[in-house]
Design brief:
Number of helices: 5
Distance between the termini: 99 Å
Order of helices and strands: HHHHH
Radius of gyration: 39 Å
Helix content: 55-70%
Strand content: under 5%
Structural class: mainly alpha
Length: 119
Amino acid sequence: MSDFLANFILVFLTALFLKSFFDSYSNPQKHFTLTEYVTLQPIGDKDAPQQTPAKPKPLKPKPETVKVIDEEERVLKTDCELALKKLGCDNKHSKYIIKMTFEKHSPKTVEEFLQKAFV
């Protein structure tokens, strides 16, 4: 008895699904395209104007700044870096100390750099 009842319900639901499917398939007003579904426009309003996003403004190229470091300053910074490494500073810390010291002061020798850096 329960098998008969389960099969009857299954056939009834299948018939109901097929009837509603063919009714909606034969009615062209209920059809919608995938683009209408994705853009979330009302299904019946196919002639609605679509909003297009504004074009982004082109970026202005940044002017390139060229740092001119004379040979003496480059050699002095290299010597200062080697002196800091000999004193036990790691590479990252020594570059930071060199950068900060040369921004605040303008040492001419390694001895002057060490005095300004650690005072």
